[in-house]
Amino acid sequence: PLTYFSGIGAGSKRGILFKGGASLEALNNVKTIVMDKTGTITKGNFVVQHIVPAAGVPLDEGQLLWLAAMCEGASTHPIARSILTAYEEKGTAAGSGTVENIREQAGEGVEATLEGKKLLCGNVKLMNRNSIDLSGYHGTPGSTEVLLAMDGHFLGHVDIADTIKADAKSAISRMKAQGLTTAMLTGDGQASADAVAQEVGIDEVRARLLPQDKLSALTDIREKRGAVMFVGDGINDAPVLAGADVGAAMGSGADAAIEAADVVFMNADLASIPISIKIARKANIVSKENIAFALAIKILVMLLGLFGIASMWLAVFADTGVAMLCVLNSIRMLYMKTE
């Protein structure tokens, strides 16, 4: 127990909350790290990456972004907010005219008018419904794209993507160096999931999953590869966190996820995953050292006692002295290097 108490303390010093020694012990047996995408591997905030006017269109990037911002001004959707943020940050000059009659089309985008001309801002489905020629449009894998058209002509598109955490690639490399397999479960589209997985080095990807599908996928991975650790942050991750051998939640995530988890990463970074694995493995080694050392000394003193060689002081050392040495050995966990 002293070893695992020290392991819990070592984790706490690094922003890792282990909810008891059982969590630390179970983590030592993990073979696969399964992660959610949004909020775990990525930051969960959408950012405008590129503004691409269509060929032959007399608009620059600033004017195209202005049109998108004017259309999305009344929307509370995360993608709309990212466009408005980009417009405010870039300080783009306003275009000419006033965008009026803004009507949001559920699941498609926005329809509006600009100086009597019909303005469209949304996805491919919105463009197709209005018979817009998209022959000059080429999508970007892994990005969410907002397309714009006016008066029946395609104007261009804005690429928006969730940003990957800075430490994701190095953390996943460390996991692989520890002999672990990595997998990602997400409700996002396959192209977006594959792009993220390829960039950071994830071994297996399962996309377009509902919350109940994630639990089924986790069970399948466990059957194939052994004990799994699931890392997530959303309220819809709570069932999967509870169903994993070890559930870990990002400290920045939903309260339900934190409640259901065995481990909480207060720093909300992926680097905490390989650090927690290292602490768990070290705790396992130190606990075995303590058991072997204590039993060996006690057996030796008992044998010496049978032959009348052991003194009272040696017997005291075998009991209290060995216990103190095991405590000191356990305390080494607090000063271990995890980098």
Total E-strand runs: 13
SSE-based structural type: alpha/beta
Radius of gyration: 28 Å
Question: Major sheet: order of its strands?
Answer: 1-13-12-11-2-9-10
Q: How do the helices and strands follow one another from N- to C-terminus?
A: HEHEHEHHEEEHEEHEHEHEHEHEHH
Helical fraction: 40-55%
Mean pLDDT: 87
Query: How many alpha or pi helices?
Result: 13
Specify the biggest β-sheet.
7 strands, mixed
Shape: elongated
Distance, first to last CA? 25 Å
The residue ranges in which pLDDT falls below 50 over 5 or more consecutive positions are none
The portion of residues forming beta strands comes to: 15-25%
What does this structure look like?
This protein is α/β, with parallel strands linked by helices. It has 13 helices and 13 strands. The strands form two sheets. The chain has a seven-stranded mixed β-sheet, with helices on both faces. Strands 3-8-7-6-5-4 form a six-stranded antiparallel β-sheet, with helices on both faces. Helix 1 packs antiparallel against helix 12 and helix 1 packs parallel to helix 13. The model has no long low-confidence stretch (mean pLDDT about 85).
